[in-house]
Amino acid sequence: MDNKLVENKATTSLNKTKSLVLAGLLFAVAIVLSIVENSFPPIMIGVPGVKLGLSNISVMYALFFLNKGQAFSIAILKAMFVLITRGIMAAALSLSGGILSLIIMSILLMLLKEKISYLIISIFGAVFHNIGQLVAISFMLTYVYIWAYLPVLLITGVLAGIATSTLLKFILPAFKKLGLK
Questions:
Q1: What residue ranges define each of the domains in the chain, with the CATH number in brackets?
Q2: Is the dihedral of CA 83, 145, 54, 97 positive or negative?
């Protein structure tokens, strides 16, 4: 067998292993960030469920620097963690918001490639995360008035997108030093 072929297979295997380990670490970070965020008091009194979405930083990192499949896997695993710790309704909201936001962010990345910033992608992701959750809750509760909550979710989605993008940008140098970017 050609030495270069063996070397390429070994490099590919090492890259796959490194990618899998990094995805596992990102999922662990997502869990920790989720636990930390749930220990905070509500961000907006009188507006239930509004959060920064700190654990979504891990999902965005996976989408930007690993691949879509790993990002979707982390989002699904996050929803399973939420199911175990907070119940079926919270898990449905996590899954619906996470999947819709990843679909939108993936489409933006495919269509606009280098012409779009992480900030814009993060804002769209956060806004569509909220929309996905609103759609899910509207099926569960069947309240017509739940859609009156949409303007609040759009504004908080923009703010959460800015916050998570800023935090991701802040931690990227640390990942780069570790050789993970």
A1: 15-177 (1.10.1760.20)
A2: positive
Asked if the model's pLDDT at residue 125 lies above 90, the reply is yes
* CA 97 – CA 122 distance, rounded (Å): 13
Residue 10: pLDDT over 50: no
- The position carrying tokens 């570790």 is 178
Long-range pairs, 61-68, Cβ under 8 A, ≥24? 61/26, 61/168, 61/175, 62/23, 62/26, 63/102, 63/105, 63/106, 63/109, 64/109, 64/118, 65/175, 65/180, 65/181, 66/19, 66/22, 66/23, 66/26, 67/19, 68/102, 68/106
- Between the alpha carbon of residue 29 and those of residues 2, 37, 54, 60, the distances in Å are 41, 12, 10, 12
Question: Whole-model pTM?
Answer: 0.83
